[in-house]
Fold this sequence. Notes:
Elements: H1 9-18, E1 28-32, H2 34-40, H3 42-49, E2 73-76, E3 82-85, E4 93-96, H4 105-109, E5 118-119, E6 122-123, H5 126-139, E7 145-146, H6 154-161, H7 163-172, H8 175-197, E8 203-206, H9 219-225, H10 227-231, H11 234-239, E9 244-247, H12 256-262, E10 264-268, H13 271-274, H14 276-282, E11 288-292, H15 303-317, E12 324-330, H16 336-349
Parallel strand pairs: 1-12, 7-8, 8-9, 9-10, 10-11, 11-12
Antiparallel strand pairs: 2-3, 3-4, 5-6
Amino acid sequence: MSDYSGRSPQGENMLRVVYFDHPEWTPVLVGFLPAAYAKYGEQLDDIRLAHPRLFPTFKPGQPMTAQDLYVAGKTTDCWGCVWDNLHEGMVGQVVGHPLADWKDFEGWKARKPDPLKDDLLGPRDWDAYARRIQEKKRNGHFSPDHMLAHGFHYMLLCDLCGFTQVLMDMAMDEPNLHELVAVLMEYNAGTVRKQLELGTEFLGLAEDLGMQDRLPVSLDLWRKFVKPGYECTAGQARDKDIPVFLHSDGCILAIIPDLIETGIRVVNPQIRANGLQGLKDVAKGKVTICVDLDRQLFPFASPEELREHVRTVHETLSMPEGGLILNIEIGQDVPLENMDAIFCEVTKVCKLPDPETTGRVSIGF
């Protein structure tokens, strides 16, 4: 990537990161769970105002409310999966699996969703998607467009059939599972095809492929039942030379080379599940790492331990050429002083720019 004409400072810097072309700063993404807003309220406004380089576009008085799967209660998605949420502001989980018994498969297929009409929890609004894509282009902004739900292939198989049943069916090479995979791939490929037609510059995908210390299945079974779901989605963007972002929790070291092969150019893994050395060995310099700082550490460490954590991660994975983004997710269990320590340190080590010199643009996505 060498043509940055028409790009905002954010757009140019992010492209330089993704294409290893010497960015000015290491981008930082910060997300607050709705549950954190519910707990801290205006205190989160104060802490963001105290870190203008990290939150250059923030304006107080913009409360965040729980929506969709973050709302307490039960809901049914377009696939027939029943979600239950016991804690407002945190995502729920599937408790009703419509294909727990394959005898229901034929009836379910008659009600399967249409990629051009059905989004996870309501109708597709392609006009709204198109407006967002064009607005980013007008502003010179560069960030991934997510139009498939979190958990679009492997996780959806588990939601439809149940985790244990999916693993058994993979091991037994169940014919119905092959057919179900084909149904999901048809929906996902159709969604991405339309997304590319609308002119997306950066495809976003998200699902958790790993467990705490390993994949849930063997690499052979992953390649047989899961990798095709990435070939038909990320592969479409790869073939058009459009970069792909993938968020994935859990230990995914074993499949990072396969993910790169399918077209993933930015991978968003967790530190604790993969290990800092593991990410350095497998991913550094080969794919842009949007590394998820250790959320399991945030509630319990001291501020100094968190500052050291930020420094260590950045020193280990950063390169002058680029290829690194830091991602910070804040839940309701993170003390305010710990947030402040993390925000102070990333501002320093990532060399975040003066908001005034960049016109107060975003420093991440």
